[in-house]
């Protein structure tokens, strides 16, 4: 197709062997249209064989399409024009559904921002506000993760330009810190310099406030780094049209649904086909066949079953408050740090040594992510752990947890990291969620104290009788997470920083349901 500015975009189209007029499914992606989101979804021919015309397009500057690729910058206008083109494809009945994963999901939101109005959208693990839910976490720039994707896109661009020197400099075997320095110095080749400065102009959440009424089916994963974006988009669309907003939620990571070899794999017999669910969604909204999907379908990792849940309960604010307490040994003795109803005036001191920093593991922002084992991590003396008593009855943890941690420092540190885990009666611990937060001055406390506000999104697990919850706090890994603007990496140094965690001004808020015990 030719855009109004004269740029030609190229797509591959799959058609069923029929003379009937059919709806079109459209995907727009930057990695080469041959890939077509097949790292997670079925090949386009699978959808075509089930009664759809499927078009997968190379976005501007990608694959065989003309122009210069600039991350997210042109997807609003180009997407809206492409939607009109798709409606007019040979054999089209005039209805168009859009689908795709990750960047291919964000292109759908940006298409709406450009004025396009598809008849239905199936979005898998995408960003709703790229500055807040993609490039950053808790106010800190995701330097390591952002560099990895920027290097991937820069390789594609260098290959397209025939820039062999850049391809050599972007060798995937190089440490990410070296790739960071190279990409920051090459804004002609990469968006990293702008993103590291907090400059992302494409923002669906701001352009679509509120979003239009378009049927939306989303797939979200508790271990996905874009989890916050998926949940924020769902909340925005559900506020406008709850009857046409649908969410499937599981403990998946960004790639590797169902068959993952990691800890986020579903139980035997609980595999879920996102492709079949999307097909049923499109059949209902584009063909008038079958029923609408449930509003919210969630996988409970505590019982290993899928459950149709009330989205109001899932998105409600956390209601139960408990406080950390210890005798000052929460970083060196697992049995000392406790989560209790009444706060104490104590404190814990732990030391961040930059020569051996504590890793950040589990959840949606740790490496590795997902419900990984944390016993060895909690055995470190630079990680403070606070554990509740065992539950007296089964209790559903569903929604968002929050934690406020009061801290004072004797050195330079930009943020803290925290994890929320479930502890079995045998002492084993698995991550439920993780978070990173910038250290900010606490105006309402004593001089020299700061506050970190953590959010643990996407909790959905039945906690069994005898199981406990644990909050762990540590320094955020550096330079993996940096304050904005992050135009250069900090120098590697050997100077340690002592963190003092103050119990009285700290708290944990939990979304506990089916309450019936004193601990719930």
Outline the structure in words.
With 520 residues, the chain is of the alpha+beta class. It folds into 2 domains: 225 residues, Alpha/Beta hydrolase fold, catalytic domain (Rossmann fold, 3-Layer(aba) Sandwich); 194 residues, Jelly Rolls (Sandwich). It contains 13 helices and 24 strands. The strands form 4 sheets. It has a 9-stranded mixed beta sheet with strand order 1-3-2-4-5-8-9-10-11, sandwiched between helices. Strands 12, 13, 14, 16, 19, 20, 23 and 24 form an 8-stranded antiparallel beta sheet that branches. The chain has a 4-stranded antiparallel beta sheet with strand order 15-21-17-18, with no helix packed on it. The relative contact order is 0.12. The C terminus is likely disordered.
Question: What topology emerges from the helices and strands here?
Answer:
Layout (H helix, E strand, L loop, with lengths): L10 E4 L7 E8 L14 H5 L4 E6 L16 H13 L4 E10 L1 H11 L6 E5 L5 H4 L2 E2 L2 E3 H19 L2 H6 L6 H9 L7 H5 L7 H4 L8 E8 L3 H14 L4 E9 L20 H14 L8 E5 L4 E4 L2 H4 L5 E6 L12 E3 L6 E6 L22 H4 L5 E4 L7 E15 L5 E9 L5 E10 L1 E2 L8 E14 L4 E8 L5 E3 L13 E14 L1 E2 L7
Parallel strand pairs: 2-3, 2-4, 4-5, 5-8, 8-9, 9-10
Antiparallel strand pairs: 1-3, 6-7, 7-22, 10-11, 12-13, 12-23, 14-23, 15-21, 16-20, 16-23, 16-24, 17-18, 17-21, 19-20
Helix pairs in contact: 2-3, 5-7
């Amino acid at each position: 197709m030719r855009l109004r500015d004269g740029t030609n975009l190229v797509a591959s189209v799959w058609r069923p062997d029929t003379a009937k007029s059919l709806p079109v499914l459209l995907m727009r992606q930057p990695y080469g249209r041959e890939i077509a989101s097949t790292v997670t979804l079925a090949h386009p021919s699978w959808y075509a064989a089930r009664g759809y015309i499927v078009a997968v397009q190379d976005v501007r500057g990608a694959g065989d399409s003309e122009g210069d690729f600039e991350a997210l910058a042109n997807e609003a206008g180009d997407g809206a024009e492409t939607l009109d083109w798709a409606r007019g494809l040979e054999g089209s009945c005039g209805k168009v559904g859009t689908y795709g994963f990750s960047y291919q999901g964000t292109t759908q939101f940006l298409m709406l921002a450009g004025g396009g109005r598809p008849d239905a959208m199936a979005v898998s693990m995408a960003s709703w506000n790229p500055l807040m839910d993609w490039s950053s976490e808790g106010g800190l720039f995701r330097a390591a993760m952002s560099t990895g994707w920027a290097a991937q896109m820069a390789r594609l661009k260098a290959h397209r330009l025939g820039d062999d020197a850049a391809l050599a400099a972007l060798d995937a075997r190089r440490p990410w810190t070296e790739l960071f320095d190279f990409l920051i110095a090459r804004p002609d080749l990469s968006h990293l310099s702008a993103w590291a400065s907090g400059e992302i102009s494409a923002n669906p959440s701001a352009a679509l406030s509120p979003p239009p009424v378009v049927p939306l089916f989303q797939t979200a994963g508790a271990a996905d780094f874009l989890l916050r974006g998926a949940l924020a988009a769902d909340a925005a669309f559900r506020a406008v049209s709850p009857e046409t907003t649908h969410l499937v939620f599981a403990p998946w990571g960004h790639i590797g649904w169902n068959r993952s070899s990691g800890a986020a794999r579903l139980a035997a017999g609980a595999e879920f086909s996102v492709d079949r669910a999307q097909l049923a969604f499109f059949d209902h909204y584009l063909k008038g066949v079958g029923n609408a999907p449930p509003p919210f379908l969630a996988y409970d990792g505590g019982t290993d079953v899928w459950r149709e849940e009330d989205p109001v309960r899932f998105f409600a604010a956390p209601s139960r408050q408990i406080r950390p307490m210890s005798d000052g040994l929460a970083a060196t003795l697992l049995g000392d740090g406790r989560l209790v109803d009444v706060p104490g005036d104590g404190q814990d001191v732990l030391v961040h040594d930059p020569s051996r920093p504590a890793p950040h593991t589990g959840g949606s922002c740790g490496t590795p992510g997902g419900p990984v084992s944390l016993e060895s991590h909690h055995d470190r003396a630079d990680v403070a752990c606070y554990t509740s008593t065992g539950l007296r009855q089964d209790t559903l943890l569903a929604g968002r947890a929050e934690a406020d941690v009061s801290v004072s420092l004797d050195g330079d540190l930009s943020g803290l990291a925290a994890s929320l885990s479930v502890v079995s009666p045998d002492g084993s611990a698995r991550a439920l969620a993780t978070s990173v937060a910038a250290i900010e001055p606490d105006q309402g406390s004593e001089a020299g104290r700061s506050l970190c506000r953590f959010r643990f999104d996407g909790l959905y697990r039945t906690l069994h009788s005898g199981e406990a919850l644990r909050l762990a706090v540590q320094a955020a890994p550096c330079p993996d997470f940096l304050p904005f603007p992050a135009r250069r990496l900090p120098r590697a140094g050997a100077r340690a920083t002592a963190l003092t965690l103050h119990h009285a001004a700290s708290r944990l808020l939990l979304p506990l349901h089916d309450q019936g015990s004193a601990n719930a």
